[in-house]
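We emphasize that the prediction below concerns an isolated chain of 272 residues; any contacts that depend on oligomerization or on bound cofactors are therefore not represented. The input was used exactly as deposited, without trimming of termini.
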Amino acid sequence: MALAWLLLVLAVFAGLAVGIGSAIDASYHPQHEWAGYDRALVHFLELTFWIGAAVAVGSSLALVLRWRIAASASVVVCWGGLVLGGTVYLNSVPKGPQYFDRYAGEMHFRIPWQYGPSGSDSPAPNGFYVSLCVDSLLATYDEACREGKQVSVYPPKLGFASEELSWQRRQNAMKQAGSRGGYEIYTYSIPAEGTRGELTLTYYRRANAEGQLLKWVTCYRTDSCERRTLMGGYVLVYNTTESAFSEWDATDQKLAALVDSWAVPSTTVNSP
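Result of the prediction step, given as a token string:
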């Protein structure tokens, strides 16, 4: 039956135009509050295609057998049921969680979905990361946030693990380049290799009197830097620029205040 095949073609176009986008959104934005709706829509479009194909084939066979009424009825009933049932099904899909539990070591945080929190959802040696506009602290899913950046939160041991190892291995090869704002500055040159020219890294290091690493910044020749800062019981990791040096500490404090606002107080059970 021509109508059944036309509806099947429309279902295919809908699957390509809407289903692919919804599948991508559900895969790359699993914390979004509408991720569940996107997944439900993809499943419904898949079901629509298979039912539509079965109806098209079945109604065509019915016409060959001269069962015209049965052919017409099958198209109307099946597609009418898909439209009504699909509407009810999609409208019944609830929004996703408004908060996600994440951990940095044993520290527990409850983070709004708008920050796209990913990482450990139970106590573990690793941490978690969120996405936000560092200057305004707006979440990446806030319409006013145009350039969201990743900010990671790690337990102290993991947060400085590679930096401590680099310090131990490369310290003798590093050249001291003075100090600035309480940081010791070092440079480390990586010899040219093949078509790549020599690469010079600049390290900003701050430690306490006992030698414990408090802040570590690695800057590259493109003015991009990765900053790691110990803030109480966790380490903040995010990208910045060397030209924003005067704002580094203030940015640490802003980010730490935001992260601390997500902290879930630990409960201590007193034994009788």
